[in-house]
Amino acid sequence: MKLKALFKKKKEQEEQKEKWLENNAVGELAIDAYETDKYIVVQSPIAGITSEDIEISLEDGMLIIKGKRKRPKDTDKIEKYLYQECFWGRFEKKLILPEEVDITKTKATIKNGILTLKIPKLKEKNKKEIKVKVEEEEE
Questions:
Q1: CA end-to-end span of the chain, whole Å?
Q2: How far apart are CA 59 and CA 51, in angstroms?
Q3: 58, 53, 50, 55: which is closest to 66 by C-alpha?
Q4: Is 96 left (phi over 0), alpha (psi -120 to 50) or beta?
Q5: Which domains does the chain have, with CATH numbers?
Q6: Phi and psi of 48, rounded to 5°?
């Protein structure tokens, strides 16, 4: 095989790998999470993502943020990157919440490329405390 043909094959393989990664890889979001007296607050830089690109849910006490970061259209024609650190494609972040919360009253906003979630904590009267009696077993 000639050298030119080898380079062409290598380029085709790299393009196939990039397409596969774009469709199958899952990136993570960087987040900050803190709590106030009334809320669990989660913030994440999500530049370039709209509210249609993101889904937020709560399953078994775990907050799940997922979506897709779309590659800008004008980058499709770039043949050679000098640096490529941005993640394009599906992303997902899971976070176990430290308190019982009311996800139905969560307020999610995107402002200046920052996603902010304000998740209300349940009031003390709505929390259930279950006491478990501990017994010693005889040997």
A1: 77
A2: 20
A3: 55
A4: beta
A5: 25-71+84-123 (2.60.40.790)
A6: 85, 0
- In order along its 139 residues, the chain shows pLDDT tens digits of 576 777 777 777 777 766 665 555 567 788 999 999 999 999 999 888 888 889 998 888 888 998 888 877 777 777 777 877 777 778 889 988 877 888 888 899 999 989 999 999 887 655 566 667 776 677 6
**Distance, CA of 139 to CA of 130 (rounded, Å):** 28
- List alpha helices for the chain, DSSP H: 3-24
For residues 127 and 101, give the distance between their C-alpha atoms in angstroms, rounded to a whole number: 9
The pTM assigned to this predicted structure is: 0.66
DSSP string, 72-108: PGGGTT----S------EEEEEEEE-SS-B-GGG-EE
Alpha-carbon distances of 85 from 9, 81, 88, 106, rounded to whole Å? 24, 10, 10, 32
Q: What does the angle CA 129 – CA 101 – CA 43 come to, to the nearest 5 degrees? A: 145
